[in-house]
Amino acid sequence: MMVVTLVLLLATLTGAPVEGQWRRRFPPLDPCRLPYPPRRCSDPSPYLPRPPPTPVDNYDGYSMFVFGDSFADTGNLPYNATSLLAWSLMRPWHIPYGSSYGKDDGSVSSTPQATGRFSNYKVQTDFVATILGLKMAPPAHQVQGDASCDNTGMTFAMGGSGVYSVPAGVPTLSAQVDTFAQLVSSGAIPAARLAKSVALVAVSGTDYDRVGIAHPKAFGDVTAFIRNVTAGISDSVDRLLKLGVKKVLVNNLPPIGCAPSQTKAAKYGACDDAGNIGADTHNKILKQLLGDQDNVLVVDLHAAFSAIVQGSTGQFKHRLTPCCVADSFCGATDANGDLYEVCTTPSLGLPGPEEYFYWDDMNPTQAGWAAVMEQVEGSIKQFVGVN
Ligand SMILES: *[C@@H]1O[C@H](CO)[C@@H](O)[C@H](O)[C@H]1NC(C)=O
Ligand SMILES: *[C@@H]1O[C@H](CO)[C@@H](O)[C@H](O)[C@H]1NC(C)=O
Questions:
Q1: Which partner for 138 in 55, 153, 277, 287 could form a disulfide, CB atoms 3.0-4.6 Å apart?
Q2: Using a 6 Å cutoff on CB, does residue 310 contact ligand 1?
């Protein structure tokens, strides 16, 4: 039997920030952050969730609909929640998230801006949008609302989501598809928008982490649970196709035993084999369920992440240590200051985030995503039929 300690997307859903033994303090970078609760004070920008746009009748580009978790969220989590429980979920709206805002090489920005993304700048959705020829990622549902849909589509993905429900009320994958279905049936997403549509489904392992922690005994039959999770993904993909989406990109699982949440115990020195075996099983079953459909592409994040963390692409000085380190979660603070360490502090002589593959305990940096998406771009273009 496998002893599985799978991935950690939101380890801190259940608790307030805790103080770390190595705790160090840095000058607060975000004037909006303290005192708790934080306020949002970012100006609107292309990488914030966009307000409802003016319809463009003659738009004939792709529409993109995005589902899943933190790999794909472009601003669906609340930025003004008031409970401590929600604090870890609000972190993508606060520095140090967005530290490289506006810097395509992923280096430190002089105008940092947290945009609701789990990265120092862009996430996977932004790169897929570029591949499809969009100027920017489609607006987040949180801001756009239910009345209308931008021509470029909509992002429903929310950090912490998965196939199974989450304690903090983050909508599951199928609940996100329910919302999409309602917008299709109300006409807010017109049939014309679906005629040239591509969906991205990013389910990156939250289910395994949460069940492992909350119900260790229920985890006895790991393969049965993996079958349930993959079946849930497959069901949502089928529903999207039935609702009229033309092509669906579905991420497989990266080697989640190499995520910093899993390598932390070994001082970020080595991957956790059990987690990686679990990911392999997940990917094998996912491929069996989805691999033969002409209108579905399983995006091989596993191969791309593996090549990078194993060093075979020759990229990144730091491939297992995250740029942002914390006992609880990146971005955690208390009344006295920061409870995390971040590699973006030049005065400490640390290399910048562009030298790190991982940004936080789970999610790649902007430079990390650029390197991953470079590897899968060709297959996505061929599948969708763009040059
Ligand atoms: C948070 O923002 C939403 C709209 O985005 C608003 O409806 C709600 O009242 C706000 N809550 C607080 C506590 O400010
Ligand atoms: C998988 O799903 C089935 C049907 O919903 C359920 O009975 C079973 O307990 C689930 N197994 C695991 C390990 O979660």
A1: 153
A2: no
